[in-house]
Amino acid sequence: MSSFLKLIYNEQLKLYITKSTWIMYIILAALIIGGAAIVATFDEDLSKPTGDNWREELQTENEALLKENEEAGEEEGFVISINNDIIAENNYYLEHDIKPSSYGAFHYVHENQGLLSLISLFTIIIAAGIVANEFRWGTIKLLLIRPISRSKILLSKYISVLIFAVITSIFLYVFSFIVGAIFFGIEGANPHILLHTESGFEYVSIAGDILSTYGYKLINLVMMATFAFMISTVFRNSALAIGLAIFLMMAGTQIVFFFAERSWAKYILFANTDLTQYKTGNTPMLEGMTLGFSVSVLIVYYAIFIVLSWFVFTKRDVAGH
Amino acid sequence: MNEAAMELINVKKKIGKKEIIKGLSFHINKGEVFGFIGPNGAGKTTTIRMMVGLMSLTEGDVLIQGHSIKTNFKKAVREVGAIVENPEMYPFMTGIQNLKHYANMIPGVTQERINEVVELVGLEKVLKDKVGKYSLGMRQRLGIAQALLHRPSILILDEPTNGLDPAGIREIRRYIRKLATEENVAVIISSHLLSEIELMCDRIGIIKNGELISTQTVHDEADQHEKLQQIELIATPHEKVIELLESKHNIDVMQIEHSLTFQCEKDTIPELVRTLVSHDVSIYQIGKARASLEDKFFDVIGENVIE
User: Using alpha carbons only, what angle is made at residue A163 by residues A158 and A165, rounded to the nearest 5 degrees?
Assistant: First the structure.
């Protein structure tokens, strides 16, 4: 093994040997299994009709829903709007003569994508601790008196954070798929799903949509993890890093809206982390923003985070606590 | 034997406007155990941190086997094994996991070497326990094991016997001496236990307020061959002894409580004793008065005051 791989191996070992890391995986697993159990128990009506006479069944469902809407009072507008959505969905299937896909493992993985926010949270916690903890334990001294440059040690730690994020996401997808397959079965090799977008319905491959969603979410994840990593390196305080990063992750969009009137609002990191705003049919958060602009802003922020961490870590005197 | 393993050249450290280390210059030879002592706040730990590259030098340089810690950090630090302050390890990992972790960071440390080091510090039985459960003494041993993994030519130990029981202290002491004499390792030990330093070290450097006040040899071999020796005598009656020595041998005697001290040539001692005995003086004890390190220390340092 090369010396750098050994460093990464060391960092992974330290991560996965601690209980708190395992608790993260247990929480994820519990949410995935629990989610499947709840869906399987309470929602009998998951699947669209997939038999040979699916057209007639969709028609009857629509008629039933319309009837329900007529009977519903005004205060039940919520029910009506849901029903209207389902009717519109069914009509799309009928008009385009697409046979709906049954519910199964792929659909379940697709639904669990929300848990990526939880993975962002976990990654922030890991990033916040990976440097600060060495200072807290006092082990930083023994770490830095090895014939390895400080830059390499820092890089091995940063890469370890990213590896953690990737492994945890793979766990989320694979475990969701397995649990989904056990509870609902697998719906085929490349099932499609009907998505509501701002521009109407889109019939897409689930696997493709999962990949693209992951790509978009990864940007926010990496930016926030890098931010936490920087705070942790500069202030040697993991609690501060976790607190700040999570606060900003939660409040990011509100901050942008709060300052939306100002001309500099578009330079705020959180105005740019969600690149789905540039997908066809979507409108950017603020006026005058383009994909190129957002990517540039992201790169500048990223470079600042990395350079600041690197500069402080390599130049700092390691003194007492 | 007299080749320098580590050399400090006018090392200075300023933090803010305060000069903490004011130009240290000294060297440590191969195969030598060097004691680094000084009152609290004198700058011992800061100096050690600069030796291993944890702190930057404001001025001057540290050469380790000829490699500068400033410009050739990797090569310089490769030669160093150290415990800085407390032997802090990952509490959630076992002893062996900790050692392997550090072994991974230096090329060429084999499993055999790890076993060898473990055996040497006597940690075989607790190797699979979490370090969090270790006593301070056990952590100290693990710290020493960690520092020895890569066969360094310079070993830097901050308070190495801290937390060890008397048997453990003796073991470590023996081991340090063995490393120095058999493997020609230069050992730097900082300690506040002066008697410890005295037992272990060949040479000591005394540091106060960031300045090296003096370096001296502990077991002054030279003393043995000096003509005039400091003699300590316990005999009664005092007045008679003082009078006899002055009149018959022309020696000035100082009385400190119950003992009498004076300087004389080694060859005259038997004659002195004969004189005293023939005049009915009761001699209880006569010997060379050896100033202990503690006396030397306070001679140079004065009182333990941090300025």
Answer: 100
Residues of A in contact with B106 (CB under 8 A): 146-147
* pLDDT for B306: 43
Distances (CA, A) of A170 to A166, A214, B130: 6, 11, 31
- Pick from A11, A133, A134, A145 the residue to mutate for testing the B interface (most B CBs within 10 Å): A145
Q: Locate tokens 């061959």: which residue?
A: B225
Alpha-carbon gap, residue B244 to B257, rounded angstroms: 19
* Range from A120-129, A163-172, A208-217 carrying the lowest mean pLDDT: A208-217
Question: Are the beta carbons of B92 and A315 separated by less than 8 Å?
Answer: no
Token pair for B79: 């030669």
Contact A131, A240 (CB under 8 A): no
Q: Do A146 and B102 touch (CB under 8 A)?
A: yes
From the number of C-beta atoms within 10 Å of its C-beta (0-12, 13-18, 19+), residue A235 rates as middle
Segment B91-145, tens digit of pLDDT: 999 999 999 999 999 988 899 999 999 988 888 899 999 999 998 888 888 998 9
3-state DSSP assignment of residue B216: strand
ipTM of the complex: 0.81
> For chains A and B, what is the number of CB pairs under 8 angstroms?
77
Cβ–Cβ < 8 Å for A194, A201: yes
Structure confidence at residue B33 as a pLDDT band (50, 70, 90): very high
C-alpha to C-alpha distance for A115 and B37, rounded to whole angstroms = 58
Facing residue for A139 by CB, picked from B55, B77, B90 = B90
pLDDT of A76 above 80: no
Backbone φ and ψ for A99, nearest 5 degrees, come out as -80, 125
Provide the b/e sequence for A100-112 (b: ≥16 CB within 10 Å): bbbbbbbbbbbeb
What is the C-alpha end-to-end distance of chain A, expressed in Å?
A: 34
Tokens representing B220 are 């002054």
Please give the structure tokens belonging to residue B112: 């055999």
- B65 close to A (CB below 8 A): no
pTM of the model: 0.84
**Burial zone of B16 (CB within 10 Å; 0-12 exposed, 13-18 middle, 19+ buried):** exposed
Mean pLDDT of B183-206: 84
Q: Does any CB of chain A come closer than 8 Å to the CB of residue B54? A: yes
User: Taking CB atoms and an 8 Å limit, are B97 and A7 in contact across chains?
Assistant: no
Query: What is the 8-class DSSP label of residue B90?
Result: -
SS3 at position A268: coil
